[in-house]
Amino acid sequence: MMTPRIALLAVALFATPSLAETTYRDDRSTPSAVVQSLYNAIDRHELARAYSYWDGSAEVPDFSTFAKGYKTTDHVELVLGMVTSDGAAGSVFYNVPVAIRATDTSGATHEFAGCYVLRLVNPALQEVPPFRPTHIVSGHLKPARGPLNAALPKECAG
């Protein structure tokens, strides 16, 4: 697990607009990497890839509705907090605090903060394809104001 300071530094570097425009990131190796990859896909307007990070539950709408929600998104900045985890019956659930600033196609910015819950079923228990890597189970973000570091939740309830 990264400390909050290191996580914030890593994300600040990732969120640089010139990097986001040129760098493709699809990393499902850690909960932080999955969330960074989600926003990289949104930032690059690769919404089918963004949709693939979700588990397909009722938490996420159908793809058409999902894509419409990002139709006017031009750029996204992301800050991550300290990831926590809990194990349950062959799975690990991760809580990932986030704060984002979305810039729309008109140049207006909107800040949101909240938490994502991700799940990894023990890989040794996944004996039949398709293998399911770490994926997003739910996300609850609310409008926020001010600097992203200040809006970032200190922790997420498990």
Task: Please describe the structure with a list of short key phrases separated by commas or semicolons.
about 160 residues; alpha+beta; five-stranded antiparallel β-sheet; 5 strands; about 30% helix
Report what the structure shows.
- The chain is of the alpha+beta class.
- It is built from 6 helices and 5 strands; from the N terminus they run αααααβββββα.
- Strands 1, 2, 3, 4 and 5 form a 5-stranded antiparallel beta sheet that branches.
- A hairpin with a 4-residue loop joins strand 3 and strand 4.
- The longest helix has 13 residues.
SSE arrangement:
Elements: H1 4-14, H2 17-22, H3 31-43, H4 47-52, H5 63-68, E1 73-80, E2 84-88, E3 91-104, E4 109-121, E5 135-144, H6 148-151
Antiparallel strand pairs: 1-3, 2-3, 3-4, 4-5
